Amino acid sequence: MRPGKLCGAAVVVALAATACGSSGEDSGAGTDKAARGSGFPVRIADCKGATTTFASAPRKIVTSNAAALEMLLRLGAGDRVIGTGFPPGKGALPGALGEQARKVPVLGKSVIPKEKLLGSGADLYIDTFASMNIMGGAGDAPTEEEFAAAGIKHLYLASTACAPMARKPQRDLSGVEGDIKRLGAVTGTARRADALVAGMRAKTGKVHKAVGDIAPGKRPSYFFFDYDAGTKQPVAVCRRQVANAVITQAGARNVFDGCDADFKPVSWEDVVAKNPDWIQLGIRNRGDAAADAEAYDEAAAFLKNFPATKGLTAVRNGKFLRIGSARTTIAGVGNADAVEEIAHTIHPGRFKAAR
Q1: How far apart are CA 229 and CA 225, in angstroms?
Q2: Cα 346–172–43 angle (5° rounding)?
Q3: Per CATH, the architecture of 18-201 is what?
Q4: Which CATH number fits domain 213-354: 3.40.50.1010, 3.90.25.10, 3.40.50.1980, 3.30.870.10?
Q5: Cα-flanking dihedrals φ and ψ of residue 175, to 5°?
Q6: How far apart are CA 37 and CA 284, in angstroms?
Q7: HEC profile for the chain?
Q8: Could you tell me the pTM of the whole model?
Q9: How far apart, in whole angstroms, are the C-alpha atoms of residue 100 and residue 327?
Q10: CA–CA separation, 173 vs 249, rounded Å?
Q11: How far apart are CA 181 and CA 188, in angstroms?
C-alpha cells in the first residue's frame, strides 16, 4: 500500500507505540487521563506531532480490514462499524465475534474503492496497513484533504502501518498494546482496552517466565514463510514487523532480524544460508478449515520438493508450524495467542517444567 502519511492513532502528543520508536512495555503511557475515563476531548498525534481532536466518540466507523474490525468488536464498539474492506473469512473470528463481523457491510473484498469510502458517511476510517507495501498497491486512495472534505478522520494502526518508518525494531507487543489502548480512548472504551491488554500480557508474561532467560544465541532459528506472497521469491519479515515481536517473545530468533525494514524480498539462497531450525507456514484465511489445511499442505509440499529448500534442517526434520499470517504479521489480540502457540511448540519441555 502507499506509504503512510501519518504514523497512526496515538493519544496526546507523545506517541508511545513501539512502531514509532519505543520498545518499552508502557505503550499506553501517553493516554490522556480524561480519555481513560471515557472522557473527551481526546487528542490524537501522528508521528510528526500533528494532532487530531475527537470531541466525542465516532459514531460511524469504516475499517480497512479484518484486523481493525476485530479490535473494535473486542472493544465493544462493533455496533458503530458501518463497513469494512478485506473482511474476515468464515471461521476467522470465534463465536459471537464472527457473527457480529458477518453483519458488517463489506465495502470492498480487498481495498475499499475511493469513491465508496469517501461516500460511506463514516466519521472515522481506521487504516491498518497503509504503509505495508507487501499488501500491494492501494490504487487511487483518498488524500488527507479528501478525507477532511468528506468529514472523515483518518487514523492508522501504528504497529503495522508505521513499521517501515520506525526507528527501533519491534521485539515485544507494546506497539500492538498501544494501538488497542488508543482505539479504546478514541471510542470511549478505555477500560475494555485495558482489560484486553491485561489479557495479552498475562499470556505473554507466562511465556516470558518460561523462556525469557534463553540467550539470543541459544534460541532456535525461525523463518516465517509467507506462502501467499509467492514462491518465486520469498519475502522476509524483518525487525520492524510485528511478526518479529511475536517470534522474539516466543523464545525464537527470527533469521531475518538483522534486516532493517518491515518486509523485504530476499532470495532462496538467503533462506538457505540461514538454515532455520523451524519454519512457520504462514497462510491467509481461506474461509474454512479444510481449505486452510489444504493451503498448509501445499506450503509444506513446496518446501519439501523445491531443490533449494528440501535440504534445510527444518524441512528435513518436519519442523513446521501451521499458524495463520494474520495472527503473526497484523496487529491484534491474536498476536499473544501466536506467541503462546509458537513457544509451546518449540520449547515444550520448558512448559512441562513450569507445570
Answers
A1: 9
A2: 150
A3: 3-Layer(aba) Sandwich (3.40)
A4: 3.40.50.1980
A5: -65, -40
A6: 37
A7: CCCCCCCCCCEECCCCCHHHCCCCCCCCCCCCHHHHCCCCCEEEECCCCCEEEECCCCCCEEECCHHHHHHHHHHCCHHHEEEEECCCCCCCCCHHHHHHHHHCCEEECCCCCHHHHHCCCCCEEEECCCCCHHHCCCCCCCCHHHHHHCCCEEEECHHHHCHHHCCCCCCCCHHHHHHHHHHHHHHCCHHHHHHHHHHHHHHHHHHHHHHCCCCHHHCCEEEEEEHHHCCCCCEEECCCCHHHHHHHHCCCEECCCCCCCCEEECCHHHHHHHCCCEEEEECCCCCCHHHHHHHHHHHHHHHHHCCCCCCCHHHHCCCEECCCHHHHHCCCCHHHHHHHHHHHHHCHHHHHHHC
A8: 0.86
A9: 19
A10: 8
A11: 10
Q: Which residue has the cell 514462491?
A: 231
- What is d(CA 151, CA 4) in angstroms, rounded to the nearest whole number? 19
Distance CA 41, CA 11 (A): 11
Where does CATH 3.40.50.1980 sit in the chain? 18-201, 213-354
By DSSP bridging, strand 106-108 and strand 81-85 are parallel
- Each residue's pLDDT expressed in tens, for the chain with a length of 355 residues: 333 333 433 333 323 333 333 333 333 333 334 334 457 999 876 655 668 889 999 999 999 999 999 999 999 999 999 999 999 988 888 889 999 999 999 999 999 999 999 999 999 999 887 644 444 445 578 988 999 999 999 988 888 888 877 778 999 999 999 999 999 999 999 999 999 999 999 999 999 999 999 999 999 999 999 999 999 999 999 999 999 999 999 999 999 999 999 999 999 999 999 999 999 999 998 888 899 999 999 999 999 999 999 999 999 999 999 999 999 999 999 999 999 999 999 999 999 755 5
* Distance set, CA 210 to CA 204, 253, 355 (Å): 10, 16, 10
CA distance 56 to 214: 46
Tell me which residue has cell 534460541: 219
